[in-house]
Amino acid sequence: MRPIRVLVAKPGLDGHDRGAKVVAAALRDAGMEVIYTGLHQTPEMIATAAVQEDADVIGLSILSGAHMTLIPRVRQLVEAQGRDDILITGGGIIPREDMDALQAQGIGRLFGPGTPTTELVDYIKDWFASREARDTAKSGT
Amino acid sequence: MTSIDSTTSIGSGLSEEKDREIERLRSELSAWKSRFDKTTKRDIAFTNSEKEVNPLYTSADTDGLSEADLGVPGSYPYTRGIHPTGYRGKLWTMRQFAGFGSASDTNERYKFLLAHGQTGLSVAFDFPTLMGYDSDHPRSEGEVGKCGVAISSLADMEVLFDGIPLDKVSTSMTINGPAVILYCFYLAAAEKQGVDLKQLRGTIQNDILKEYMAQHAWVYPIEPALRLIVDCFAWSAEHVPQWNTISISGYHIREAGATAAQELAFTLADGFTYVERGIARGLDVDSFAPRLSFFWDIHNDFFEEIAKLRAARRIWARHMRDRYGAKDPRSLVMRFHSQTAGVTLTAQQPMNNVVRVAYQAMAAVLGGTQSLHTNSMDETLALPTEESVQVALRTQQVLAYETGVPNVIDPLGGSYYVEALTSQMEEEAEGLFKQIEDVGGVVRGLETGWLQRKIAESAARQQWEIEQHRRVIVGVNEFVTDEPELTIPLLKIGNTDEEQRERLAKLRATRDSALVERRLNELREAARTNENMMPHILDAARAYCTLYEIRAAMEDVFGAYREPVFF
Questions:
Q1: Among residues A89, B112, B115, B434, which is most buried (max CB within 10 A)?
Q2: Domain(s) of CATH 3.20.20.240: residues in chain B
Q3: Overall average pLDDT of the A124-140 stretch
């Protein structure tokens, strides 16, 4: 199986990148190809980078409270470029009910503080394996 | 201090008796050691910084320490505190960091806190303000008032302090990239209240080096940013003499992952860099150094944190006197604010955070802090509710009035462990200063990413330790409950965007726009010269130029910072 390509991104003005960097390093150590955008990215910059880099997954880290605006925006922009197959996941300081609301809009799982990095790794690997299986099944028919 | 390992020549009967006592202690210690070695022990050997700690400390561990390393409270090298009276004269300032929504929402919270016995204000700005964007700038969308209060001009600052007499309170403002602009809004708001600037007491964080290192709310490249800071030192010494022109902060460096020793060393190295820049400008060190203040993060390892604070005072005093030739005792003393470590709060079993905060607060007080913010239990989930802020403030009041802890000055002074650890922290910091020097100093270390990498490596190691269960976090990797998550009520912040957009539209329509243009042009012109920028920024603030207009005018000349990206 080819390596999973993940774009780890920091949307908005929030400067807290400890989590993003720890996650980026953990995903790399788990064998994924990781691109980290750096700070202060607009949703447009993130969507463009994800498409250009042919990412399978976008991991958004937001600790600023702006998640209800920024996460759906990234999703819209990625879909507008015809890439609705990209998983949008992430984490930060996001209240449970907001996580539920975002998931109901088609965003992947969002992880809160204290989550072991192994949980994210497993989640992304499982998602990727099932997408691959689905694609194989499709191309078989 | 006498060591039980030292050999003393036999002289008078008194010293013979002392020798016998030392001999007896030494053999008792050796008997204790063999008993200790034979026993099964729990697997703990390190502090939060992975320092080995001995199971027992004795006078042998403080052998190299002399009374001159400790001094007395209020005298060089200030290891035991900066005030001769400790907390017997005055308790620390209880200062809760707060801000959310619009200026009027936050004004209400300040009045609530002052009514509950808080003794100083501390402004949390939203992300757009921290980055120098107005609330109606496209980059601000979704972030206005979310993580702090939105302040886009003098008009907002006037509302923020409406009914709060600025000559009576001291105000701390956590602002860095655009610090001098918000400072000028505050000064102009004080003028509007009829308050003499010489009466104002407070602090702007204004520590840009740690922004590049850890917190990341930067605007300009390093050199022009440092120029603005030195401008602020020089101008304020004359015009706002009681104001702390900088709060050199370890807090964010620690929160980003640094160990206690890295926090100590990187922060002090930043401090030395500012001092060197002031001296290079031709300022007398004693003209600005008395207004430098510090800000520390108080983490979980109780004694290590106390030792860090004691060592910080000693190192600062020594370097200021011996390296920078400061003579005024006020230049030698390290005054500091402390905050309990946000990074230690857990989303799991959030009530446990009350206990963590209480221990950390006690460490801050035993370390001699001048002011303290205690975090609220719900801060890993959202901004705190009034109820949880009240518990946090009450935690300080219990510590101040019920425990008896503040009654004796530096009560741990002389403890073998605390003194040995204090000396060890000092040695580690000196070692790190050497490493920073070897990479070319703080500015070079930031440009190459050396400092940022050190911090990221520590963060990654701590995460690994938690996942390997080498570091226990109660409720997260041990003592986990299968019960449904304990839910606590969370603060909901409405959208302030619309309200702020309307306020700004009204401001732009009603102010003297010719004056605004003139002030902004003057700013650009001054930025091209070596003139002090402060009077020009203050004039722009008085003319109701907005935050972003002032930021952008200087950016036209200074340019913008680009971060080195890595992980």
A1: A89
A2: 67-442
A3: 90
